[in-house]
Amino acid sequence: MAAAALLPVTMVQSSFAWGGDGHRMISRLAAANLPKDVPAFLRNGNALDTMEYLGPEPDRWRNRAEPELGDAQAPEHFIDFENADLVGTLPKKRFDFIRALAQAQAAHPSMPLTPEKVGLQPYETEEVWQRLKVGMREYRRLLAAGEDTKPAETAVLYYAAWLGHYVADGSQPLHVTVQYNGWTGPNPNGYTTEHKIHSLFESIYVTANVKPADIAPLVAAAQPKVLNDEWTDYMAYLRHSATLVEKTYQLEKSGGFAGAGTPEGKAFVEERLSVGAIELRDMIYTAWVRSADPVEEFHGAN
Description:
Blueprint: H1 2-13, H2 19-32, H3 45-54, H4 67-73, H5 81-84, H6 94-107, H7 115-118, H8 121-144, H9 150-170, H10 197-209, H11 212-220, H12 230-242, H13 245-253, H14 263-290
Helix pairs in contact: 2-3, 2-9, 2-10, 2-14, 3-9, 8-9, 8-14, 9-14, 11-14, 12-14
């Protein structure tokens, strides 16, 4: 009886981006490849284990037992660019985007242009990245003052892993498109319309066929870098994922993700996982470097 009660939750979780296995791989490999000028607490064994465990964390918030939490943060895992781009250039702030969506909705009354339908993925990512940077700044302050840094280290690791979930979602092409789980609209190439491709690609195939050792050399081959502007870089990263939507469907159609799949299908999945780990590593590294920038501290309302 208890097992039957848990079945719907398990079925829902299996369809989340990259599944638990992909998220764990991306988070652990990102931490393992941080450069040596990042503090050791972000690179040691505890960091790797913590990042790995917390990689799937936001998907644990998406159960029917907590419907308010699930509904509120579900849009933060995706963005449908086909609809989001109706606002023009996407602003950097969440509420500016929500207001722009409302204006676009008035101009396109038949389109589903609410935040819940369009998604808020880059906004959640940017906000969590900024949390990470603030946490790292506090770590630096405590370290300079000779105070205990352990509480700040805990916060920083959590923020890094939280960030990692959304960055990983962004490397999955079906998280940036209306074609997220079966082709809709005109379909001259005969792509699947069944609601199976999402979990087949990111969960079932990954769990059965991809190991961390397959991804590690690809991540290690990319040198860490400090991003000039994290928002601009992340948006370009998402846009590139969007260019691969049709390729994902083409590979599924040719059996690329069925069973052991095809060499092309496996290479595609490995590349997408490695790109997620590289982007996460560079965003963490950038947050660390930028956390040394001087800021005007908040001291309450004037």
